[in-house]
Amino acid sequence: MTTPARQALRAAAIVLIAAWVLLPLLLIVLASFATRSQIYAWPRPLLPSPWSLETVRFFFQAQGVLGSTVNSLFVAALTIVLSVAIGAPAGYALARFSFRGKEGLRLAILGTKMFPATILAVPLAVTFITWGLYDTLLGVAFVHTALALPFAIVITTSVFAGVPFDLEEAAMTLGCSRLQAFRRVALPIALPGLAAAAIFTFVLSWNEVFAASLLTLRNRTLPALVMSAIGGLGSGAPLDYRFAAGFFMIVPALVIILIIRRYLLTLWGVTVR
Amino acid sequence: MAQIRLERLRKVFGRVTAVADVSLDIAHGEFMVLLGPSGCGKTTILRCLAGLERPDAGRVFIGDDDVTLVPPSRRGIAMVFQSYAVFPHMTVFDNIAFGLRMQGLPAQTIRERVGEGAALLQIDQLLDRYPAQLSGGQRQRVAVARAIVMKPQVLLMDEPLSNLDALLRLQMRTELKRLHHEVRSTTVYVTHDQIEALSLGERIAVMKDGQIVQCDAPARVYDLPANRFVGSFIGSPPMNFLDGTLRAGPDGAVVEVQGARLRLPPRAAGAGRGDMPVHVGIRPEYIALSLTPVADAVAGRVVVLEPIGSQMLVTVRAGADLIKVTAPVEFHAEADREVWMRLDPSRVRLMDVRSGEALDGRDA
Questions:
Q1: Is B39 at the interface with chain A, CB within 8 A?
Q2: Is the CB of B89 less than 8 angstroms away from the CB of A175?
């Protein structure tokens, strides 16, 4: 194939994939700033006129939304704390030390992602009921931590691997203990990367539906609440509620992914800028 | 006083013995160079001295204290790393002040000491910069300043110049020597560059396969290599080796090399031994080239001439051996021309054929 033709094909593919991802996002954003009557009108105008916060306001005034948002934030915060507290030391160990079974451990950590959560669902619910964790935010945070840990470990491993051990050794020869060297040198240098890991964890928890729906009844997180509102038997939430909810779920994730894009791309040892 | 003493130091990594029972004494204020090819264990010794590596056996003394198990922070050492290991998240000032702050010195003292150190290394203009804004040479200076302001008893340097370009390396080498005269910390310097070792060291410990094969002043290491390895590792180009035979004559020992007879100085090499085959080591500058036949010279044919600036490097084939000779720049001869080489008998170094050890040990 000639080069121009190949380039054209390539461009077409890029446009197609981008459109596939972006068009629904665009429609959701446009719809959430339209009024209710515009959303139900046919043919629907492409751009809302006038722009209006009515739909967004309606969503927030809907029952349980504010509470669920608080729940979601709480669960996400707890998940971040737990996964960084567990994942960062694991990542540090994987990056710094060589020990028997290191590669196996690395694979096993990623291997947990191959295990479908659906299989775990019922046993998990039963176990949480007996442990008194069912329908608690703590329980949801635990599950989210379990889901986020592989990513947290992979990201922090690469972050710490990017901090030369020389620097810590230099700090030790300059009067630091092992721990002080970590705290004064490795940690500050790794901080942006650790923040990326934390943010990634936030997005994961913020958007997680399955475990949250399954393990809570009254203490819903936002995705679980929206899910039940939309999928509720026969009923179904009105369109404007759906669009506003979608918008509100998507935006933080989108903004955050944009911010940490650099770290995700450097994940595998190759920096793409 | 900060003399250093290594007692039968041993370090094993898996199946590799990096350091094999090395003992070494370094005097207070001495500049000791550990020299050897990569993988010879020189850096491991340095890291054991720093406390970054725990030896599998043996002991390390700094001053009168056994520091074998003392962590790096409490050894009174400072170290300059090959990679510089300058902290990227701190300004030059904070980098240099790092160790002083760890010691909890008052801010005023820290400012003064950093100022002195920076002036010594001529980086006082750069104190507010971050390492990313510095050149390699400047980062190197920061690393050295950071070590020196500690006023360490022992200064350790791990190939500090190997990441600099040739010109800068030359300049920093001079500067390190000047610094040593000013600071006078006991210094242990690791390098694989023999010229660096010769120019910096007060003594050089030449290492191979985890052992010190010779530890001597630079001139002696150069002139009287303890074995073939040292001779062929040090010097550029290195020592030549020719096959010869040692014979005890009526009036002193004689070495025969390809028909040439070299009368050895009375008290030299292997005098009093019986006839035996030897390797005759001779440095390129101790061979005189002649275009006309000379008595007791080794005949050979010119292979190539390489002008190396101040001298002409001539490669001569004599029998099966290729011999490097340095000649004055004016020297000229076509390839394949026959030449005669006179070996200076007082500069000849005889090595045992089997062990490669010098016949007369170290005390010729």
A1: no
A2: no
The 10 Å Cβ neighbour count of residue B186 is 24
Q: Could you check whether the bond before residue B237 is cis, i.e. omega within 30 degrees of 0?
A: yes
Within 75-94 of B, beta carbons closer than 8 Å to A belong to 77-79, 81, 83, 85, 87-89
Chain B CB contacts of A185 below 8 Å:
87, 89
First to last CA, chain A: 30
What integer pLDDT is reported at residue A196 of this predicted model?
A: 81
Average pLDDT, chain B: 91
Residue A29 DSSP class: H
* Binding-face residues of A in 157-186 toward B, CB within 8 A: 164, 166-167, 169-178, 180, 185
- Among B73, B77, B85, the residue with its CB nearest the CB of A177 is B73
Closest in B51, B102, B156 to A174, CB measured: B102
- With bands split at pLDDT 50, 70 and 90, how would you rate the model's confidence at A269? very low
Following CA atoms A129, A135, A136, A141 in sequence, which dihedral angle do they give, to the nearest 10 degrees? 90
Cβ neighbors of B55 (< 8 A, separation 6 or more) are B9, B10, B11, B19, B48, B68
Residues B231 and B349: beta-carbon distance below 8 Å: yes
B163 bridge partner residues: none
Classify residue B2 by its DSSP letter: -
Distance from CA of A190 to the nearest CA of B (A): 10
In contact, B243 and B207? CB cutoff 8 Å:
no
d(CA B212, CA B362): 14
Contact B159, B42 (CB under 8 A): no
* Contact residues, chain A, for B88 at CB < 8 Å: 167, 189
Contacts of A170 in chain B (CB under 8 A): 79, 81, 85, 87, 146
Percentage of residues in chain B having pLDDT higher than 90: 71
| B143 to chain A: closest CA residue | A170
Torsion of CA A240, A242, A244, A247, to 10 degrees: -140
Q: Any chain A CB within 8 A of the CB of B72?
A: yes
The length of chain B is 364
CA distance A209 to B8: 64
Nearest C-alpha in B relative to A180: B102
Q: Which residue of A173, A177, A189 to mutate against B (max B Cβ within 10 Å)?
A: A173
Residue B212's DSSP bridge partners are B207
- A69 contacts chain B (CB < 8 A): no
Tokens in use for B258?
């390809």
Contact status, residue B364 vs residue B224, Cβ threshold 8 Å: yes
Q: Min CA distance, A188 vs chain B (Å)?
A: 7
pLDDT in tens, A221-240: 888 888 888 776 546 678 78
Between B188 and A215, the more confident residue is B188
Flag whether the ipTM exceeds 0.90. Answer: no
- The DSSP bridge partners found for residue A254 are none
List pLDDT tens digits, range A80-99. 999 999 999 999 999 998 88
Contacts of A177 in chain B (CB under 8 A): 71, 73
**∠ Cα A61 A64 A66 (to 5°):** 65
The answer to whether residue A17 scores a pLDDT higher than 50 is yes
> For chain A, what's the residue count?
273
List pLDDT tens digits, range B154-198.
Answer: 999 999 998 888 888 898 899 999 999 988 899 999 999 999 999
